[in-house]
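Appendix B, record 7
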Amino acid sequence: MANIHPKTLQDLEFPKVLQQVSARCNTAIGKEWALEITPISDAGQMEHSLGMTSEYLSSLISENSIPNHGFDSINGELRLLKIENTTFELQGFKRIASICDTVLAHQKFFKKFQEYYPLLHDLALELEPNKEIPDLVNNVIDRFGEVKDNASENLLRIRRQMNHVRGKISQSFGSALATYQTSDYLDEIRESVVENRRVLTVKAMYRRKVKGTVMGNSKTGSIVYIEPEAALRYSRELNNLEFEEKEEIQHILNQLTNQLRPFRALLSDYQDYLGQIDVTAAKAKHAQDINALMPKINSGNRLYLRDAYHPLLFLNNKLKNEKTYPQTIELHDENRVIVISGPNAGGKSITLKTIGLLQVMLQSGMLIPVHERSEVCFFDKILTDIGDNQSIENHLSTYSYRLKNMNQFLKRCNNRTLFLIDEFGTGSDPELGGALAEAFLEVFYERESYGVITTHYANLKALANELPHMSNANMLFDGRTLEPTFQLVLGQAGSSFTFEVAQKNGIPYSLINKAKKKIERGKVRFDATIAKLQKERSKMAQTGSRLQEEETKAREEAARLEKLNAKVKSKLENYQELYDHDQRMIQLGNKVNVAADKYFQDNKKRPLVSELLRLVETENSKRKKKTANQAKAERSKKAKVAQEVQKEVKVIREKKQVAKKKDVQKEKNTPRPVFKIDDCVRMTDGKAVGSIDKLEKGKAVVNYGMFTTNVSVDQLELVERKKN
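Structure tokens (predicted):
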């Protein structure tokens, strides 16, 4: 076990995580072992354990899933194997055979997929494979957990005799049943079974009429159960054979137990292996539920947790369908200590617990819910002081307890220590407690320890600002609503928003103003400045987030337009090529048509052939030689472009037809005007306006000034009525 006190594990609620892991185990041993997980004392062992959990996690989403590892405990059988002349129960043998088969299945699987699961392969192949144990058991016990007939020659002989006697009993019972069935001695059900023997159900009044042994009666006493005399002799013989069978089975099981006794150590190793696999599988399932992974592990002292979630809070919020806010924090040689400040209920304690719990989980071989680019290290000691530590048993106040705790910190902290302290220095006079806390913090700093503390004390914030390898941080608050955003911001101390929160909660302003006058003016101004800076940072963060969103949208729109532009350009080029090709074909067709017309006139073949050859040679001189594949690709491209053009032309034509139909429908729905002489009109497909000189039988003579024309009135549309 690492140098981590059980109180630290309690402070960080590590036992609750173990309960969640235990619940995901398949076996009783696995559940028990999961609750006993403790941090590992060696960095190499930690990395090995994390690697195995990570491999198992990958198998949960892989097609090559690891075989089932479930088993029933054989602790009882292992204890009996220590004691001479002991024998297992039948199910004990099956449990042992099952464990051996499961281990063999794992060894076979990991041999096949060693490349994917190297660490789990090494763990499984450390065990000596053994097919002898399951063979020994299966030769004696069948799949239903019963001793086989051929387990020994003597047992086979006894069971054959038993079957023969049972046949005789059945035959003699059938004969007795047939004899008494004709009389009215038997009840309607005729027969039953008592003490595993067939008996006649005889009416109580006729009990003396039936020969045999009374085996009992019904609850009402109206029926007596009698074993017929003919079957009784065979029943006694069967009893003797059953006793012989029992003794022979005991002898066989004794012999089998003795055969298994030399394998006790191996069987114990098999069970330990499967128990370890069960715990590893439970860790992997827990990791899957909290979106955990194995971050990069460094040999130095760099702890970089990016988008880290508190696992207990994450699962709890997941059930409630609520959001959990991740935190990002970094500790390294140049920034060893972080002082987090800000108002209460802002998430300071949760941030502290997240760091500590994830580190403890990691050092216990458990994957953690962080971003894949996170980086972690190994700490020899993890020291915590979180929560109300009042000790009733020892009659210690919170402050006394914390002082004792600090004394332990001073004895144990070094450059391989991570300390986490909540509300550092509280519990005493603010000025005196703050001064003592500052002294403690300076010692931790001088010893090059790594840590995170939360505080409201201004002197600790100032100290963090002065020392080179220490920095301030605050939990961001919305300056307008004074609601926490649960976001950690490094590099700046946080205001406690004491007066602002008081005002928000309805405390009269006059009282708040009176309180302000009671403290130093400089402190108020200092706190107000910090509060103002936090508000400005909050606004800047919101503005930055909004600008980033707009920039992303603009970039996406630009990419879309660029893609569309390239597509349009490509189409235009293809259409231009198609148009040029079609124009060339039209010109060629016209030349062929001229030659054909000339041949039609003079009927001379030689000039025609000469002209056609000239046209072909001229056309071929423009062509370039291409391979069959190139020619095929070009034809395919032209066909595709032509198909696209036809498709678009078809759409345009359909639109025009629809528009034309609408115009026709509109004309049909619009009543035709009644034309009169001197009305100004024009042709429906023309622009010139004229006046009607004469109307006769649906015809009109329209005067355009320089000429007149005779047209149907259906082809005219009214421009202006005759002026009276």
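Remarks on this record: The first helix runs from residue 6 to 11. Residues 680-720 form one domain.
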